[in-house]
Amino acid sequence: MRCHRCRATANVEIRRSRTAYCARCYPDWFRGQVQERIDHERMFRRDQRLLVAVSGGKDSLALWHVLTRQGYRADGMYIRLGIGDYSRRSQEKSEAFAARHGLTLHQVDLKGDHGFVVPDLLDTRSGKPCAACGTVKRYHFNKVAADLGYDVVATGHNLDDEAATLLGNVVHWNTDYLGRQGPVLESTHRGLVRKVKPLYRLAERETAAYAIIERIDYILEECPMAAGAKSLAYKDLLNSLEEQQPGAKHRFLVGFLKEGRSAVRTGAFDQSTDLRECTRCGQPTTGDLCAYCRMAERGRKKAAFKDAKYGRQPVADAAPDRSEAGTDRDSA
Amino acid sequence: MRCHRCRATANVEIRRSRTAYCARCYPDWFRGQVQERIDHERMFRRDQRLLVAVSGGKDSLALWHVLTRQGYRADGMYIRLGIGDYSRRSQEKSEAFAARHGLTLHQVDLKGDHGFVVPDLLDTRSGKPCAACGTVKRYHFNKVAADLGYDVVATGHNLDDEAATLLGNVVHWNTDYLGRQGPVLESTHRGLVRKVKPLYRLAERETAAYAIIERIDYILEECPMAAGAKSLAYKDLLNSLEEQQPGAKHRFLVGFLKEGRSAVRTGAFDQSTDLRECTRCGQPTTGDLCAYCRMAERGRKKAAFKDAKYGRQPVADAAPDRSEAGTDRDSA
Question: What are the chain B neighbours of A245 within 8 Å (beta carbons)?
Answer without folding.
Answer: 230, 233
